[in-house]
What we know:
Layout: E1 9-13, H1 18-27, E2 33-35, H2 47-57, E3 61-64, H3 72-77, H4 79-99, E4 104-108, H5 137-157, E5 161-166, E6 168-170, H6 183-197, E7 201-205, E8 211-212, E9 214-216, H7 217-230, E10 237-239, E11 245-246, H8 247-258, E12 263-267, H9 282-285, H10 295-309
Parallel strand pairs: 1-2, 1-3, 3-4, 4-5, 5-10, 6-9, 7-12
Antiparallel strand pairs: 8-11
Helix pairs in contact: 1-7, 2-4, 4-5, 6-8, 6-10, 8-10
Bound molecules: guanosine-5'-diphosphate-beta-L-fucopyranose.
Amino acid sequence: MSYRLAGKRVFVAGHRGMVGSALVRRLASEDCEVLTVSRDQTDLRDQDGVRRWFAANRPDAVFLAAARVGGILANDTYPADFLHDNLAIQGNVIDAAFRSGVGKLLFLGSSCIYPKHAPQPIPEDALLTGPLEPTNQWYAIAKIAGLKMCEAYRRQHGADFISAMPTNLYGPGDNFDLEKSHVIPALIRKAHEARLAGVPSLTVWGTGTPRREFLHVDDAADALVHLMAVYSGPGHVNVGCGEDVSILDLTRMVASVAGFEGNLVHDLSKPDGTPRKLMDVTRLKATGWEPRISLEEGLADAFRWFVQHQATARLSV
Length: 317
Ligand code: GFB
């Protein structure tokens, strides 16, 4: 069951974010019209504004990549913001898409929706089978509500709304704020600044023993466009590369890319979070999709982007 983007009006909600901007880049090679809206034009947390925008612009397809996102510390520090804003954004966009007759919508979730101690690799049906990781349970519950909402609109209204659950993403356009970002941009910035300043050590949060799966955001965008075309069903689809690495090994890879040769210091006052969240990507691979960017290549690309854009990158939010 394929869905053609050619000739369609495709709304990328969250186009300024890392995933949204990667989707805009990837859609440039599709014969479609990309629609975007800036936050000062329409705040996606405002239901009336979102309904007015959809009624006026009538997109055929929607990539819902808009969300309040952040790393482990941001999630743990701002639970009300992560729960409220994400529930509001996704609820408004999914409902307005249905009301305005959108033909297909893809909702972007996150691998943190799974239980803290889910079986590894994590299959899609591990959802709601155990307690969540406390540090990001707020974001996780919002994202679980979003994927269930897509399922509910399919069941009640026949809406072809699908959900994708990506693993930890990184790459151009990431957030490099040292307190609120994810691990890869934080380590890239810390390693680069330590080398430039001649600082002898690089601080890693936690023990470094947790393991994470990482996918470059351009691979993720390609997978999302692929799923929009080929996937239609009630269940969500994990999006990842099927391999993981320890935070300690990741730190050594980033230090090597950044040319930092000092030693590592562990800040044990910071949380480790979930010990592992390697996703089972059998369902995604069965659709014929494969990642193309290795972690080594991806880290080098992300580092190059940061160095070229550090004057304008999101160094603090
Ligand atoms: O990427 P991260 O913040 O988020 O942390 P999660 C991953 C691991 O890297 C944790 C360690 O064990 C951190 O303690 N880490 C080491 C660091 N140094 C640093 C550092 O300087 N900064 C950061 N941020 N981490 C996120 C969720 O969990 O996963 C989000 O909080 C989202 O909501 C995302 O779901 C995909 O991978 O632990």
